[in-house]
Structure to design on (104 residues):
């Protein structure tokens, strides 16, 4: 069987180009920003959960339906990291997160 030369298209498909230093720096900055955004989301989420602890105490004076609403709210807060794509704006503020509304 005779070997054939690869076509220019086949060569282009198999050749990987190395990223430029600028592309690497941009990628690393994006990864760090995403990591910082997730850290900020978890910190804010944890603070919101702590403020609702009292509503789950059995001796706190609310009815069972309201207690269930607070449990759902807290669960939604715990699920946020997996349901969100947080980012930071140019001022370092958290964006891209839809916070649940606490029960009233």
């Amino acid at each position: 069987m005779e070997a054939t030369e690869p076509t220019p298209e086949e060569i282009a498909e198999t050749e990987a180009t190395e990223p430029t230093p600028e592309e690497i720096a941009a990628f690393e900055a994006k990864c760090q920003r995403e990591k910082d955004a997730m850290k900020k989301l978890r910190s804010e989420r944890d603070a919101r959960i702590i403020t609702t602890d009292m509503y789950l105490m059995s001796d706190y004076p609310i009815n069972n339906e309201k207690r269930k609403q607070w449990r759902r709210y807290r669960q939604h807060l715990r699920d946020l990291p997996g349901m969100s794509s947080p980012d930071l704006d140019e001022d370092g503020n958290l964006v891209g997160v839809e916070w649940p509304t606490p029960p009233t």
